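Person: Show me a sequence?

Helper:
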Amino acid sequence: MGRPEPARRYIQQEPSAFEVNPVYGKVPVLIHHGNPLSESSIILEYIDQIWKNNPLLPRDPYQRAQARFWAKVVEEKLLYPGWHAVCLEGEKQGRAVKVAIQTLEKIEEMLKGKRFFGGDKIGFLDLIIGFVSYMLPVWEEVASVKIFDPLKFPSIAAWKNNFINHDVIKGEYLPSRADMISYFQWRSRELMPKYASSLHY
């Protein structure tokens, strides 16, 4: 089966991605004054330093360190297991889902009583975990699994609604759900044989 149209559009971007990000060859990449930067967290920290009128990270050193810590937790214990669940089957998939759910439980406790992770404004950690609001439901559908339960995680559910409907997030910036489903179905088929032997949960 050939690549779906969204995948073909994605692949067509790869030569430019490899040109500006030769190590990973993928997006996101920020080019500022001709200088490329890759990796979401690094890009966000750079933006925080350059455009200081709208800070993304807290000014307090301890709170900044905490934001970075939780960003690492989200990446290692939620983003990766959530994606791996799309590319695994059986017991391995179940264990990946369990890791992701356990991480959501910790995030739920941290988020209680807050509109966003940093308070009343979208900040660094909101943007790091933003995939939960839009991409994670697509992964769940593609993998036929359930990771996020709004009844179990009401604080995250409220945050998701606030985040996805914020003026700086919603609109034409997000790809269509249909395109994402088609793309990730293709990626799952491509990666499942490799992940079955290389990933251990």
